[in-house]
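Tutorial handout. Part one gives the primary structure; part two gives the three-dimensional structure as tokens.
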Amino acid sequence: MSSRWVALWRSRGMIALLVNRDLRVRYSTSVLGYLWTILDPLLSALVYWFVFTVIFVRAGVGESPYIVFLLAGLLPWTWATSSIQECTRALTAEAKLVRSSNIPREVWVLRVVFSKFMEFLFSLPVIAAFAIFAGAKVSWYLLLLPLALLVQGLLLIGLGLILAPLTVLFTDMQRLVRIILRIMFYLSPIIYGITDVPEKFRTLYSLNPFSGIIDLIRASFFPDQFTSWGPFITASVITLVVFTLGIFVFRSLERAALKEI
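Part two.
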């Protein structure tokens, strides 16, 4: 296992090259370029803002300014869903390179998560602009943002290592993942906060690792939403379990998956 990690570390230049290539290819033929990364969450956020602040103005969901509240949950969720969906194709999208290269195959999962993370960073000016425009205040929890992003990154890598070989062996996994992500969108505190969830369901919600992660990210602007460290600690523990399980599953299924691609 240690030699595997050494090989991955030695492949860091290759990972950076693949991430850079992904970004260049994605935007090379686009007129708007990386602005598409901003437009997707921005248009979604505006729709939800209109629904929950104009139509359902009495619902009292989230906090004001709601557009900042919404983006603080929607942007990391976009990073998560795009990474998870693309990780299901991580080994099959470039099957020839995966089969012929000598680099650890985990690299193909890492490059997906890292390239989507770069797109997430590109979209941060959106929430910064709305925060300034709407007069949202920044709290000291902003200093803990890297911690929340680190936990989410490890969680996505773990999920990617599980899904990449499983999808090769069981093609229905892609459809199942899409359905689960659609359900998880509404079961995660994205368009609402954990404090909006009835007390009797909050313990159940804390078992969703994205609840604790988004809760800490959102606390950068809305510290009152961060009621306790419980959900984030739970998210961190689940992340370590998923990350460890991902390494084991990938190593166990790697050979079988390579035979299928």
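Part three, for discussion. The mean pLDDT is 84. The two ends are 24 Å apart (CA to CA).
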